[in-house]
């Protein structure tokens, strides 16, 4: 992909003056170096798991918990009453709505994790996904 980008920039640069062409290649080199050093980190920094929402719970302390097929049961995603992990309360409220919609539409959700030593999608039950050991940071409604 990077080579295709370089080829396209080379074609565009052909139509510019030679001094501008040199500047473009210098800029491209810098971006290419940054890309080559950060691409492996971006690929390994996170993983995701997909499953259908079976139940959605709100605990008395405001924790949003969900049973997600293939991922686990009763796991805490975030808190509706306080910041927990990556999630502010407003984002948690939006996630609550997303989970309810997924459950009603029988659609899967995708959960994204950072810093999770357990890259298996079968995470276990009654865990706090917002804890740094799991690093839950994003939810998406699929299909």
- Sheet of most strands: 5 strands, antiparallel
Order of strands in the sheet with most strands: 3-2-1-4-5
- C-alpha end-to-end distance: 27 Å
Query: Which ranges are low-confidence, i.e. pLDDT below 50, for 5 or more consecutive residues?
Result: 39-44
How large is the radius of gyration?
21 Å
Round the mean pLDDT to the nearest integer and report it: 82
Q: What is the percentage of strand-forming residues?
A: 25-35%
Q: What is the helix fraction of residues, given as a range?
A: 25-40%
- Following the backbone from N to C, one meets helices and strands in this order, namely HHEEEHEE
Summing up helix and strand content along with how strands pair, one would put the structural category as alpha+beta
Number of strands: 5
- Approximate shape: elongated
Q: How many H/I helices?
A: 3
